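Predict the 3D structure for this chain.
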Amino acid sequence: MGIDLGSRSVKIVQMENKKIIDSKLFDTIQFYRQFAKKGAKSLYLEPEKIGFKNDNIIATGYGKITVQIENAKHLPEIQAHVKGAVFQSGLEDFTLIDIGGQDTKVVKVRNSRVVDFMTNDRCAASSGRYMENMANVLGITLEELSSYSDDPVELSSTCAIFGETEIIAKIVEGYDTSQLAAGINYTLFKRFVSLINRMASDIIVLSGGGAKNQALKRIIAKETGSEVITVADPQLNGAIGCCIYGEEIA
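Done. Predicted structure below.
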């Protein structure tokens, strides 16, 4: 069983013989309140309450340090996401872009192994949280936001906080929602394009909840000239990687 303890959501996957037999997604705060208990030194989880067997559990993500899981092994985030991407894409050489709730990780992968990686965690404007906030400002869904990439409004602020103020000002100026949404998607790309350039590959693989943004996928392909692939289950990728690792060491 693989658990990705993310900053915004907790993803759980159970696999047998490299096939997903069950998966669950929880809001992070809700998950800890329902399934975590305070132990002698830290929190611990009871997988049976979640509906999974308590055997061969691998954990990764933001919460792996603060939450102790009975009989669990811990796998670094980068390794978990790379193993998941290799498994889901069937590729060995690529650049992985994982767009999570709080940060974006860019990883250079060769022969299915991590060669180098960088993380943009200094500004929320490179994360899924930024997309959520901007969609709320525009009064649209994330799905609608992810459909716009043409005729983007030039946004000067790449800061998530000041970006909201700028978007409101652009709305007052009369710009269309489609132009504003496209501008937001380009701003997201600008926050990690320098990382992509340093980890360049002919093929880019997207994972994380932010990988569902189809406009961002088109922008990355257009601006880098690389082939861009989104894994089948982008939000579950880290948990899938944990399961693959669990089968490797079983």
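The chain has a mean pLDDT of 89.
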